[in-house]
Amino acid sequence: MWEEQDNRLKRTFKFRDFSEAFAFMTRVAFLAEQQNHHPNWSNVWNVVQIELTTHDEANTVTEKDRKLAKSIDGLLN
C-alpha cells in the first residue's frame, strides 16, 4: 500500500529474487515514460523502493503521482 509522507508517495515492493525485481522495474520504466512522470527509486536484490513526487509542483504529491502509483499497482494484478 502507498503511504504519503514528507510530500511523497512511498511504497516498498518485495519479490522472489533480483530478476523478478528488475523485470518489475523495467515495466515501471515503460509506464513512467508513457506518462512522462519518473519515479525516484532504488533496488537492492529483491526489494524495490519507489517514491513519487511532482518536481514541477514544488515537490508535492499531485494527481500525476497518484495516477502513476495506480498504474504501478496494476502491474501486480
TrEMBL record:
Signal peptide stretch: none
EC number(s) reported in the record: 4.2.1.96
Superkingdom as given in the UniProt entry: Bacteria
Catalysed reaction, written as an equation: (4aS,6R)-4a-hydroxy-L-erythro-5,6,7,8-tetrahydrobiopterin = (6R)-L-erythro-6,7-dihydrobiopterin + H2O
Gene3D superfamilies hit by this protein: Transcriptional coactivator/pterin dehydratase
The UniProt record lists the keyword Endoplasmic reticulum: no
Keyword Transmembrane on entry: no
Record keywords, A-Z: Lyase
One Pfam family in the UniProt entry: Pterin_4a
Family of the protein in this entry: Belongs to the pterin-4-alpha-carbinolamine dehydratase family.
Protein known as: 4a-hydroxytetrahydrobiopterin dehydratase
The organism of origin for this protein: Emticicia oligotrophica (strain DSM 17448 / CIP 109782 / MTCC 6937 / GPTSA100-15)
Highest classification ranks of the organism: Bacteria, Pseudomonadati, Bacteroidota, Cytophagia, Cytophagales
